Amino acid sequence: MERIRTAWALFQGLLLEALPFLLLGVAIATLARLVAPQGLWMRRLPRHPLLAPSTGALLGFALPACECGNVPVARRLLAGGAPLGTALGFLFAAPVLNPIVLLSTWAAFPNQPWLLLARPLGAFLLALLLSGVLGLLPESRLLVPELLAQRRLSQPLSQVGLLERPSGLVGAPLPPAPAPEARAGWGAELEHASGEFLNLASLLLLGCAIAAVVQTWLPRSWLLSVGSDPTLSIVALMLLALVVSVCSSVDAFLALGFAAQVSPGALLAFLLLGPVVDLKLAGLFTVLLRPAAIAITAATALLAVLLIGQWVNLWLL
Amino acid sequence: MLIAAALLSLWGLVLLVSSLSGRLHLLLHPAFHGLVAGAGALLLGVAALLALRGRHRPVERLPLPWLLSAVVANAVLLLPPDPSFSLLAAGRTQGLPDPPRLAFLLPPEQRSLSEWVRLLRSRPDPSLYDGQAVRISGFVLPVPEGQPLLARLQVRCCLADATPMGVPVAWPQGYRPVTNQWLAIEGRMATATLAGEASSVVIPERITPIPRPQRPLEP
User: Which of A74, A128, A317, B16 would give a disulfide with A91, using CB separation of 3.0 to 4.6 Å?
Assistant: First the structure.
């Protein structure tokens, strides 16, 4: 009973902390729709395999959102026809490459200049890698069908054939909820944003519940007991990042609590992996990516962060 | 849109009630309290606008995920959090709190438990504190080796990242501290040997059970 009560409190803590950031993300996405309803600026973003994810990653400075808020913004980018690499670069890098997160990292580790450089650089490289790997999949196997249908309607016919664009012109069934192309007005946008917030909040509930249950029944000391072992400490801190699921704007302060007990590579691994993959995000990603693509994202991120952590340990230990 | 308006207002109410009832003091770092209240007010405002827009439309079907989220929102409203502090602290290494800023300037009896922990971490020489008056409160935290500590939880974001910080107490002969119980202790600092090292411990002169404070977490 004690554990259930504690898990319930953890669930409430995670949820009440994440909901305002989710609302912020939906608000940014809605503003983007209101300001540029046709999404023309999105389609003009670079498509180059390296430039596209780089642009997306740097968009985090203009649209600051932590890992819950960036999902609706990335969804808006994809639905608006932005290059795939740009949207994915934003999705994976913006939770670290934004002023709030960089400032909090600096505030937590002012005496570790290598970390202040390694965190944004690592997040940037990780976003490039993930965008590159996911870009190898065709969009139909990468994106969920509803989002794909909205995206097809926003893409010019020079890129998408009529058969791929289910607008009814060639007899294909109409998409369930096509994106309105014309300026919809604030009322319709408000309705759209409300629906999006409620859908994402339902998924956030699931993620917070999983994170709270796992945290309550998995003693953290097991993960931290591996201490300064170069490889095990990285694996342990990566598991911790998956489980704890705290917001990227404050995870540096959490890392401060055990920074002295773990290897530097493990510390960086914690700060890099949490914003990209964690239990709380598992549900939210299902509005963007198909299950196989989520699995590829998680596997690639885990492997890449492990390698980065190992390299940092080789360099600093 | 009436369903969406009702659900948004329910979640707005959850955020506002959590803020106004002081429940957030048990869940989140104070830096986020304003954000939660603001988000709650915004959700209520949006819900009102939606209700005005959709008042002449028929009520639409309620999707299953939204229904579940309504159930959870009601549960959050009806079942306030009541965590076990010692369970939260169990299996988590003690945090490394920031060094003290004002603790040396304060008279010893005005230092809080967290200020004592910071002070003892930054200047661990027990002879500096011998005989100083102590007036602290916290919960009883059992530790794997040795006597239970009097502890507080430090939170940087939300309860999920809570880390314990505690001071050793030389409990009086025959006194059995109850895990999780909140106590106010008045006494003096003294030097004792813990795990083979000279350390500062609190020698209680008066131990009073107290209810859990309104703000049990240390920022």
Answer: A74
Architecture of domain B87-218: Beta Barrel (2.40)
B156 contacts A257? CB cut-off 8 A: yes
Q: Dihedrals φ, ψ of B133, to 5°?
A: -70, 145
Of chain B residues 109-128, which have a CB less than 8 A from chain A? none
- pLDDT (0 to 100) of residue A244: 75
The domain locations on chain A are: 2-316
- CA of A44, closest CA in chain B: separation in Å? 32
Are the C-beta atoms of residues A273 and A242 closer than 8 Å to each other? Answer: yes
Q: Could you report the per-residue pLDDT of A182-206, keeping only the tens digit for each? A: 455 777 778 888 888 888 888 788 8
Interface of B with A in 148-207 (CB under 8 A): 154, 156-161, 163
Check A9 against B36: CB less than 8 A apart: no
Sort out which chain B residues have CB atoms less than 8 A from A253's CB and list them: 156-157, 161
Eight-class DSSP state of A169: T
* Euclidean distance between CA atoms A10 and A218, whole angstroms: 13
Q: Which residue has the tokens 């305002």?
A: A20
Residue B53 has a CB neighbour count (10 Å cut-off) of: 16
Beta-carbon-side half-sphere exposure of residue A26 (alpha carbons within 13 Å): 24
Q: For chain B, what's the residue count?
A: 219
Residue type, A116: L
Quick one: closest CA in A to B25, which residue?
A: A13
* pTM metric for this prediction: 0.75
The answer, yes or no, to whether residue A167 has pLDDT greater than 70, is no
Return d(Cα A57, Cα B62) in angstroms, integer.
37
Nearest to A91 by CA among A119, A41, A126, A49: A126
Domain assignments of chain B as residue spans, ordered by start: 2-82, 87-218
pLDDT for position A307: 95
Q: Is the pLDDT of residue A181 over 50?
A: no
